[in-house]
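SAMPLE LOG
Freezer: B-3
Tube label: C17
Construct: single chain, 555 aa
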Amino acid sequence: MISVEDVINLALPAGTKVVAGSTGLGREVTWVSRIRSTPPAFGHLAGGELVVLPAAVLAEIDERLQLDEALRRLAELGVSGAAVLGKIDKAARDAADEAELPLLALPTGTDAGALERDASRLISERRREVQHRGEEVLRQLMDLAIAGEPLGDVVRELARISGRPVALEGRDGRLLAYHAITTAPARDVIEPLLQRDRPIVARWLRTTAEASPADPPTSVYDLNKDWSRLVAPVIGRNGLLGSISLIVPRGRATPEDAQITARGSAACAVVLAREQAAATVRREVELHVLDEVLDGALRSEATLLQQGRRLGHDLQASHLAIVARFDTANNGPVRAGASEQRWETMESAIARIGATRGDRVLWRIRNNAAEFVLPADAARDERRVAEALRDELATVARASGEAAISLGVGTYREGMAGIRRSHAEARQALLLGRRLQGPGALTMFGELGVYRLIYAAEALPELSDLYNQTLGALLIYDRQNNAGLVSTLDAFFAANGSPKEAAERLGVHRNTVLYRLDRIREITGYDLDDAGVRMRLHLALHIHLALGDSLAGEA
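STRUCTURE (predicted):
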């Protein structure tokens, strides 16, 4: 792209002044053309021209035509600017400012015909030079891409060729690579500026997804008072892969910068598509390994261990499982707050969280939850790791409109069987935490107390026998009569045997609690003042809370 400002610098005579419409100096100029002295004076204009306008010609066209009206007509035709030879009055300057049309005052004595001819020739030559430069840049970058060089090397070479800092961002806005020349702003300065304005740039990028990957469009966005970004989409076979930006001093982007950005985009598309294809294959293998470890029969442990090692995972080492669920916090029943569609939009963000915690993190999305398997660190502090992960997931929750994150955390265990056990612990902790505290709880399996014993004995027939013999009759009566006896018994124990406090917990009258306690005695024959009976009932209530759904069919 050759702008009005470029034409002023390269083709117009010394002494040319910008007298109005300076905000449009970045407009592209396709040609330089004079106004005809005979009607139709503007008929040959197609838009994009820099019009050379001798003021005396206006009277030849129409003695009533004033310069300000001519400028308005030119603006409607989409010209890029007007270079006037002659007097420019205030009305003309105001019209140019209103239309953001660059209005240039040519020096006295300028030959309009020669200017049109010479400027057009210079524009053509300049366009060929820029095109040739772009082709040379593309050849150099494609040599790297075809040789299998990583994205970082391509970005570094693009920065060297252009003399500008270069930023490569993924489709999700994550900064994949950045290389700056010595005097340019550092990454920690530029990255927040890129992220701040990403929504604006992202809207434009979405409109370019159907453009040619070999010759994508470019656009300029100001980052602050000192710097702008010249950005081009990186387009693959299936749409947008990301974007590439040259960081340039504000207002100083050149046609060469635009060509280099576009050609850099084409080379990055090749590398990014290749690396994303490799990442997809790796991800599929990791999912297979994780599915086999957590859900499979573990018949081929040696094969899984070998696959894990190839991916950088030591499955014999100590690992911690964490299961996270996104919920809507409300006063109603606990239910999933994220649909399948929302999980699909969250997946890239959760993948980014896994990447920021190191490539050794295994993760998957299953049953409306994100499940993570993390290798042990030196501290082996489950709560610290879980709280850090929760903070990272909070960003995902806010972006997707979810109100609460519930986490269940297992314990560090070694080997594949240990990973599976930690995963089961995390799921049990998540389930119990949501039952006890509702959405948003962080529950450590290691802090579950008696519930750890209950989960460990879940498969024992003695546990279900104790549960059914102790609470079975009350559960059946509640199902048939909606009497609330089990919940009353639980509130009674939670109130340390106080009917008044139990009534307050349940939101009923004290006499209602006394009546229900009498019904419990009649149905079960239990003496609620007996310490042994109370202990047995209390344990059965804990079993009901932890495993009631799985044991309900046996009651």
